[in-house]
Amino acid sequence: MRDFYGTSLPNGFMLGTAQYPSPAILADAFKRSGASVATVSLRRESGQNRAGQDFWELIRDLNVHILPNTAGCHSAREAVTTAYMAREVFDTKWIKLEVIGEEDTLQPDVFGLVEAARILSEDGFQVFPYTTEDLVVADRLLNVGCEVLMPWGAPIGSGLGLNNVFGLRAMRAHFPDVPLVIDAGIGVPSQAAQAMELGYDAVLLNTAVAKAGDPAAMAEAFAKAIEAGTLATIADPMEQRDMAEPSTPVIGKAFLS
Amino acid sequence: MIPSVTIIGAGVAGLCVARTLTDRGAEVTLIDREADLGIHACSWWAGGMLAPFCEGESAEEPVVRLGQEAAPWWQAKTDAVINNGSLVVSLARDKNDLKRFSRRTEQFEEVSSTQVQALEPDLGNRFQKGLYFSSEAHLAPRRALAELRATLLADGVTFIQEDADLDAYAQKGITIDCRGYQARDSMNDLRGVKGEMLVLSCPDVTLHRPIRLLHPRVPLYIVPRGDGIFMLGATMIEGVAGQHVTARALLELLSAAYALNPIFGEAEILEIGVDSRPAFPDNLPRIRRSGNLLQVNGLYRHGFLLAPAVARMVCEHVFDQTQPELMDEIAA
Prior knowledge:
The complex is a heterodimer.
Chain A: E1 13-16, H1 23-33, E2 37-41, H2 50-60, E3 65-69, H3 76-90, E4 94-97, H4 110-122, E5 126-131, H5 135-143, E6 150-151, H6 165-174, E7 181-183, H7 189-197, E8 202-205, H8 207-210, H9 215-234
Parallel strand pairs in A: 1-2, 1-8, 2-3, 4-5, 5-6, 7-8
Helix pairs in contact in A: 1-9, 3-4, 7-9
Chain B: E1 4-8, H1 12-23, E2 27-32, E3 49-50, H2 52-55, H3 61-67, H4 70-77, E4 81-82, E5 86-90, H5 95-104, E6 109-112, H6 113-119, E7 129-133, E8 137-139, H7 141-154, E9 158-161, H8 166-172, E10 174-177, E11 191-201, E12 211-214, E13 220-226, E14 229-233, H9 247-260, E15 268-279, E16 286-290, E17 293-297, H10 303-320
Parallel strand pairs in B: 1-2, 1-10, 2-9, 5-12, 10-17
Antiparallel strand pairs in B: 3-8, 4-8, 5-7, 6-7, 11-14, 11-15, 12-13, 13-14, 16-17
Helix pairs in contact in B: 1-7, 1-10, 4-10
């Protein structure tokens, strides 16, 4: 598996920490998922004092890599400020960069994204940009210093799966050496398996687990799907074909009917 | 022997425990850092929904079960309860959230657009479907607290204003710590969950029961307080420390109210509130004992809903030495 800014992860499961019924259920979900990365969204008003720290303590106790997230930021400037805060709170260079451009689809503002990615990369951050499957934007992000790309599967929280399989496949083919993560839009485990089968390095999801009736069970289901997809890719799947091909030889068989 | 009990913290938990203990004949002293009810207490900003079944959407089983004690208890002790059920709706484009809500809850009936309109004419025909929880109730929280306080005073309970030294009191006798998030110093697993809410005046709208508007990002409830007054709440934000309401929260809450009925655009904002709900990692309350000291905490967003059941357990523990289900290991 490709590594993420020099860190190699034991699996391709990145799990979000928002929207769970309680921190106890969140911790259960992480335990059963075996996820190697936890994303955490920070708000601008998140503070350094204790009332603000209680929840972060619980996240640190998960003992996984923490990927702070600039969720809900609508401008490059806002995202950059949040990133600085995240670096202080979690003492990490990693930042999942989200600059939202449109409220209904929560699709990334790719212009603000590239701008914020440039500022943060120059300042030593290791940026995980939440982007679309647009190859030109992807190129720009790599040019300004990103070494990981996180295209969306579908709009955040929609659970629609991989909306543009062609685009995602093209992205994989176009950037064979760049670690790629499907971020957002995953609803059920089969979609996560599909992402891994496309050759992606990881999937990042949150709502699909947090909003499931039994988040911990769903987390395990995703872990298994991601493992299956990863294994399938390594195993080199067969090619599709238009005609049936019998799996047992016909020659020499008795035709009795 | 008549037990003599000191309760520290006169918010909803402290007052309910005091009421229940007094009813069984204990001699109770209530201590708070403020002279009267007010904005320093989390319960001042409560919505006052007594909605155990709706809460079941995201809360654990004990909340649904124990929460059912709330409405009858408050009805017996105060005149602040209104038994009109509660109504859950979503905008058409979020209809799947309503489906999900119905899968996770019980004791409701699905109602059509016409039925929604019959229950709440002021919602008009904006909602094609709703869930009606007819057995739920709501109360006016500040009135309920004031009434509890008044009857306790009448029953001879002593109220003292001071910054109490817990240990000093615990040396002398049974002491119950009901300070909510203020107890964070001695409870490492307690955290604060920020909540922001508004009180609006909108005499043009009449609602008869709490309405929950489901939304993937900004779920909202609105509780009628009578006389055209409404409580609008409430955000749930982890990991923040702000003492003030953010512009974003205000925008989100108000635009959700506007979606419920555009007339809310004309409402006057009477109060803007913010607090830190005390919660344990599973968002369930705890009764924790260490010698003479009992700590009651973690009522989270369920102060009025769970305080009666928690108070009952504390009382049974004090009088009958029972081990309540919410009691965890003795604090180290």
